[in-house]
Amino acid sequence: MDASSAYQDSLPVSSDALLAQLDDWGIPYVLHTHVPLRTVEDAKNVEGQFMVPGENALRLKNLYLRDKKKRNYLVTLEQDREIDLKGLGAELGIGNLSFGSADRLLENLGIRPGAVSPLAMITGAEKGVTFYMDAAAQDADVIFMHPLVNDRTVSMTRADVMAFFEKIGVEVHWV
């Protein structure tokens, strides 16, 4: 099954429900629709459609990871940041990391591969997923991310993203 909005009703929280929750909380966002994006390269092919010249925008890549003790992590980084899993595990002080399976991704974050997003912490918070975010987010004017499906992107201000995390009780660990 793909990660597009056509299959969102099979997720624990649909993209539509997430967007309705943001609306109910008064957390603003701008919604962009596009072809399904599975990789950073795919995203780079369409991001020009919604980038605003002069805006300090953070475009993301997201890693669903597990350690040897089967603890789950969502690590959100600037899309061009180089990743070395061994080095990342050492930097975070959590040892060896590996990618979690598609089944565990759905179970712990409520999403499918290709739609991994900080907004998935709406499910991950309840499942005990630890969230790490690139420190570059602290300087961004706007952050682009998928709203649980990969044929939509939302842009939110840094303050609004942080308000979302506060609403769902997620502590952001900076990396």
Distinctive features:
6 helices, 175 residues, single chain, eight-stranded mixed β-sheet, 30% helix
Outline the secondary-structure elements.
Blueprint lengths: L14 H11 L4 E4 L6 H7 L10 E11 L4 E7 L6 H8 L4 E3 L2 H8 L11 H7 L2 E4 L8 E4 L6 E6 H11 L3 E3 L1
Structure in words:
With 175 residues, the protein is an alpha/beta fold. It is 30% helix and 24% strand. It contains six helices and eight strands, in the order H-E-H-E-E-H-E-H-H-E-E-E-H-E. Strands 1, 2, 3, 4, 5, 6, 7 and 8 form an eight-stranded mixed β-sheet that branches. The model has no long low-confidence stretch (mean pLDDT 93).
In short:
With 175 residues, the chain is α/β, with parallel strands linked by helices. Helix content is 30%, strand content 24%. It has helices at residues 15-25, 40-46, 85-92, 102-109, 121-127, 158-168, and strands spanning 30-33, 57-67, 72-78, 97-99, 130-133, 142-145, 152-157, 172-174.
The H/E string reads: HEHEEHEHHEEEHE
Please indicate the percent range of residues in DSSP E strands (runs of 2 or more): 15-25%
Major sheet size, sense and barrel closure: 8 strands, mixed
Pick out the low-confidence regions.
none
What overall form do the CA principal axes indicate?
globular
Structural class: alpha/beta
Number of helices: 6
- The beta-strand count equals 8
Average pLDDT, rounded to a whole number, is: 93
Helix percentage = 25-40%
* Distance from first to last alpha carbon: 32 Å
Radius of gyration: 15 Å
